[in-house]
Amino acid sequence: MQTLDMAEVALREMNATLHAQAETSNQTTWEILNPKGAHAIACGLDAPIEVTVKGSTGYYCGGMNKQATIHIKGSAGPGVAENMMSGTVVIEGDASQYAGATGHGGLLVIKGNASSRCGISMKGIDIVVHGNIGHMSAFMAQSGTLVVCGDAGEALGDSLYEARLFVRGSVKSLGADCIEKEMRPEHLALLADLLERAGATAKPEEFKRYGSARELYTFKIDNAY
Amino acid sequence: MCGIVGLFLKDKALEPQLGALLTTMLVTMTDRGPDSAGIAIYSNNSKDRSKIVVQSDDPDTDFEQLDAKVSEAIGAPVSLTVSSTHAVLSMPDGLIEKARAAIATFSPTLRIMSRGSALEIYKEVGLPKDVAARFEIGQMSGSHGIGHTRMATESAVTTMGAHPFNTGDDQCLVHNGSLSNHNSLRRKLRREGIHIETENDTEVGAAYLTWQMQKGATLGEALQRSLDDLDGFFTFVVGTRDGFGVVRDPIACKPAVMAETDQYVAFGSEYRALVDLPGIEEARVWEPEPATVYFWSHTDQPTHEKAA
User: Fold this and answer.
1) Contact pairs from chain A to chain B, CB under 8 Å
2) Parallel, antiparallel, or unpaired: how do β-strands B171-179 and B165-168 relate?
3) Domain B46-117 is found in CATH 3.30.70.600
4) Most buried pick, A9, A141, B282, B297, via CB within 10 A?
5) Which residue is closest to A57 within chain B, CA to CA?
6) Do A42 and A32 contact (CB within 8 A), yes or no?
7) Chain A residues with beta carbon closer than 8 angstroms to that of B285
């Protein structure tokens, strides 16, 4: 295992070292020490490597990730895994606002709670939150799946497109054009797979599904003002 | 952007380190705003005495004999401690208003930074590390304090545009965000007779709290009402004689993270600001909820629950 200690290695040098890992790298496991809330840790990775961050991170950890598996052994600041393309980001603690925003693919697992705007404008990413999420989550979410084992805050799924939302607990309020939908066998199968991959013990049958009513002007021009 | 830090000490053993801990926290937040910086320190070490902190662009001239002049005007002994562009005038309780009126008459260019029995505000244009060094904040002790580093958006980079803003005796406010209805609210508050000096949005926020409290609201109630009457983005941290409070607007774009241990409650715009605090690894760390007023106080009858 390779170790990068941020008390000794500068942020740019650390990220450059991780960027230099090719598809065929033999150095497949990395450990980052002393993150101390620094910004942009392990951003823009594009290799099937495993990176463990030993502590809490600041803005944009794991942003734009491709292929890599990033494990944060603490909490994550705003914009964790923003615009992720593929790979996996797992957070042991909580995530701050707009976790997984605009993500195109991959799996984001938050074992604690996520705050506001989780999965805003998501475009194909799968997000599993073991705890609760804050207000305006999945705002304008286009595709992908957001699974919440706890409760959701205000205005869930406002102006939603095709993303699928599953919440086990309560939803404080639904956003514009977001409605509860029937749970069909294919949704239960999808949930079972995501929950298992995210290490969550919740059962698919305990969730409710929410999605777009497709009534906004983006779907029906007669509904424009 | 702007960066905010706050530290409320539960453990008296840490009090001699308050200035040093706050300075480290604030310097870490420098890249959230390099325009100006300020710190409010609360220390209850002067029994039965009140303090006014004044600022001058020409301290050598303005602070000369200032104690004697104020003393004569209020008919009581006054001590003066000069620290760079700031000076602390200390006097017996109950004479602050008289002293303020006198200073406004014979030294109209002096700016009042703060007033109260425990509060001292130091703020200037410049980087946090330079402002902290200039006033030797690192050597100060106290029970709690808040700090701010500014990225100016709504008004000029001046001493008076720097935070914290004094909202009343022993009360102050720092702000991360921008208020969008500050012009109309300023006109309204001026009509109500509230003194507002600058074009700064946060000063209007501070004046709003002052106005609410003049009408009989407690600080806690005033903050609750600010959620209805202030339009825009804000994370506020307010200081009181015995504690501090936090409130974020309902959208809560502006970041905030808190940490609590047996020794302290700490606030930072980012987790980075908290990483050098003792025992942070074991602290409970969380994000304050939107549109929720939080307070921590050293007493069972906290200031924020009392009408002014």
Assistant:
1) 42
2) antiparallel
3) yes
4) A141
5) B271
6) yes
7) 56, 75, 93-94
